[in-house]
Design brief:
The complex is a heterodimer of chains A (336) and B (287).
Chain A lengths: L7 H16 L7 H26 L7 H17 L4 H23 L4 H21 L14 E2 L8 H24 L1 H11 L1 H6 L4 H27 L1 E2 L1 H4 L2 H14 L6 H15 L7 H15 L3 H8 L1 H15 L4 H7 L1
Antiparallel strand pairs in A: 1-2
Helix pairs in contact in A: 2-6, 2-9, 2-11, 2-12, 3-4, 3-5, 3-9, 4-9, 6-7, 6-9, 7-9, 11-12, 11-14, 14-16
Chain B lengths: L2 H32 L6 H19 L7 H24 L3 H23 L14 E4 L2 E4 H23 L1 H11 L1 H6 L4 H26 L6 H16 L4 H22 L4 H15 L8
Antiparallel strand pairs in B: 1-2
Helix pairs in contact in B: 1-5, 1-8, 1-9, 1-10, 2-3, 2-4, 2-8, 2-9, 3-4, 3-8, 5-6, 5-8, 6-8, 9-10, 9-11, 10-11
The chains are: A mainly alpha (336), B mainly alpha (287).
Chain lengths: 336, 287
């Protein structure tokens, strides 16, 4: 059964929310709030893409930092060559996509847990390469092989916010679009059973590759937008495990394999990020405890819990019954 | 380049391989028995190093001697992790266990950092800086210790698995969980014990790693990746494979440093991991 793109009521609500979010910078709200929302949308795009990979395509990819870092470095090279930064963001996404195609040759031979291991190594390799290779001559800023973005003085906070808002919303639509398409149907079949999907004529390899490549493109673009805000790139953080942690945490807290999951999860993660900023010493500790606790208490995340509740089912399920048809993990569980 | 120039890196690579095998052993054991990739392994090894460091700096206990306390402690930690956290996730999905391990890795990293600050530490003893030479080959003493420790652990573990009742039960549970259950093996308890044993070897690996290299709270990840490489080359869950895999990784690193410079040594090792994964995911000695 196909998943419907949007119900008419949801369409109006979504339009309203987007319009309000878009005019926010013009209302003169505090800059800190804009920053929170900026990070929310960047992280949302990242975790939406990871949700599509891990939750829907059965690809537990741990190499997302590779795409983010590559996009960051592409952006730096573009700004140092005097090319416009928005071109750098787009090409950054394309470079990530090309890289995804390249590493798909070795890592797509791996299945399940082996895929996770194979992809974990990739960002580490890139980190070493970017420590050694100086793409822009000898111009060094700070420790390591870090680079500052050049000539980005004219961009205001509002503009970076709009870019993030744009990719955040695009990522939501993209996930819905993919899930409503034939590709999404194929992915759902693969997630439920790899071999059954193959036996009814679904090209498992091709569909997985499609979703991997699409996700790398969006992840790269989101990474580029983040580096416009950050203003410098440096190999340790660009290819660091912190990225994997952020998107894994948002997806798992919200609910893996549920389309609304990352939205809720990212909100929690961004809140924690700023709430815990005062306690930097135990920041990771709390996030780790949260990850473990949620996985044990509510393995389907907050959204999974909400879906299991009777109130939610009475209010929403009836409307969506025809749409969901129990193809979600969480949906399947609440039907029991 | 003559043979004499290469002899030192070759010998050092083999000895270093012993350390890598020792570190990867626990990861390999846990994977072999429970099909679980414990991504917190590197951090648990580093925790072992820190424990020995605390014993050395606070009470002046020799790091190798401190294992008398360190191994039971990590055994208990491992047993608890499996019994109370991992066992619950097995019913949910494969990813659940992986994500819990990831969470544990973050917790441990942060704890190490809280107690011992992010500064780089080392287990400095009278023998950890010694070195001697045989002919033209220079050998640092800790590297020799690493290799000896790896051999001892590897041999005693394989004897334990083959000769004792518990060892046989662990092997049975790894080969066929249902079959083992039917034969009256309490697989839940076996899993917890296996995790505990794996962590005891991690404690040992931590001490020898600390004697050989400086470590910091974030070192865990790089050793995790190396261990992955070791067991990917050797075959996940195979003992001899792990040893051979360790030596291949060690040689890749020292020879890589010899030919391409120090900075590129990890690059060679990672490339070998990716190539090995894509050619033969189940490893050279994998089943």
């Amino acid at each position: 059964m196909k998943e419907e793109f949007f119900t008419p009521k949801a369409r109006w609500i979504a339009t309203g929310v987007i319009v309000i979010l878009a005019v926010l910078p013009l209302t003169g709200i505090p800059r800190a709030w804009l920053l929170y929302l900026f990070l929310f949308f960047v992280y949302l795009a990242l975790s939406n893409m990871w949700n599509l990979l891990a939750g829907y395509s059965g690809l537990l990819s741990l190499c997302q930092p590779a795409f983010i870092g590559l996009a960051g470095y592409t952006l730096v090279i573009f700004t140092w060559s005097g090319l416009p930064f928005y071109l750098g963001i787009i090409v950054g996404g394309i470079v990530s996509m090309a890289f995804a195609l390249l590493i798909s040759i070795p890592v797509f031979r791996l299945r399940g847990i082996y895929f996770a291991i194979g992809t974990l190594v990739v960002p580490e390799v890139l980190r070493v390469i970017f420590f050694l290779w100086r793409p822009i001559g000898g111009e060094l800023h700070g420790a390591g092989a870090g680079y500052r973005l050049k000539g980005l003085v004219g961009i205001s906070g509002a503009e970076t916010y709009w870019m993030a808002l744009f990719i955040g919303i695009i990522s939501i639509f993209l996930v819905r679009l993919i899930l409503a398409s034939k590709l999404g149907l194929g992915l759902a079949a693969i997630r439920d059973s790899d071999s059954t999907a193959a036996s009814i004529g679904i090209d498992v390899f091709k569909l997985k590759l499609y979703s991997f490549v699409i996700c790398s493109l969006m992840t790269g673009i989101a990474g580029g937008v983040f580096y416009v805000y950050q203003g410098y790139v440096e190999p340790t953080t660009a290819f660091g495990i912190r990225w994997t942690m952020i998107l894994m945490l948002s997806t798992v807290i919200g609910g893996m394999g549920i389309k609304e999951g990352p939205i809720l999860g990212t909100a929690v993660v961004v809140f924690l990020h700023f709430f815990l900023a005062e306690y930097t010493g135990i920041n990771l500790f709390i996030q780790g405890v949260l990850l473990v606790t949620i996985m044990i208490v509510a393995p389907h995340g907050i959204m999974g819990l909400i879906r299991g509740m009777r109130v939610y089912r009475l209010l929403v399920q009836r409307e969506q019954e025809a749409i969901e048809c129990g193809s979600h993990r969480a949906g399947r569980r609440s039907d029991l | 380049m003559g043979f004499a120039d290469l002899s030192t890196p070759v010998v050092m690579g083999i000895l270093l391989g012993g350390l890598y095998a020792l570190i990867a052993l626990g990861l390999s054991l846990v994977f072999g028995v429970m099909r679980l990739i414990n991504v917190a392994h590197g951090d648990l090894v580093v925790f072992g190093s820190y424990f020995a460091y605390a014993a050395l700096t606070l009470f002046g206990i020799d790091p190798i001697l401190s294992l008398i306390l360190g191994m039971p402690l990590l055994f208990a930690i491992g047993f608890t992790i499996q019994k109370f956290l991992m066992s619950r996730s097995f019913g949910v999905s494969m990813e659940a266990a992986l994500i819990i391990a990831f969470g544990l890795s973050l917790i441990l990293q942060n704890l190490n950092q809280m107690f011992w600050t992010p500064l780089s530490r080392g287990l400095t003893t009278s023998y950890s800086v010694e070195s001697f030479s045989i002919g033209e080959i220079f050998i640092q003493l800790p590297f020799l210790f690493d290799f000896a420790a790896a051999l001892v652990v590897m041999l005693s573990l394989s004897i334990f698995l083959k000769r004792t009742y518990l060892g046989k039960a662990i092997l049975a549970a790894s080969q066929n969980k249902r079959g083992a259950l039917l034969m009256g093996v309490n697989t839940g308890r076996i899993y917890a014990l296996t995790f505990g044993i794996a962590m005891a070897t991690a404690a040992m690996a931590g001490v020898f790693m600390g004697l050989t290299f400086p470590f910091s709270p974030t070192t865990g990840l790089s050793f995790l990746v190396i261990s992955f490489g070791v067991i990917v080359i050797g075959g996940l869950g195979s003992m001899i494979g792990t040893f051979v895999g360790g030596i291949v990784m060690g040689l890749a690193q020292t020879l890589g440093a010899q030919f391409f410079g120090d900075a590129a040594q990890m690059l060679i090792a990672y490339t070998i991991v990716l190539v090995a994964l894509s050619i033969r995911p189940q490893g050279i000695f994998g089943r």
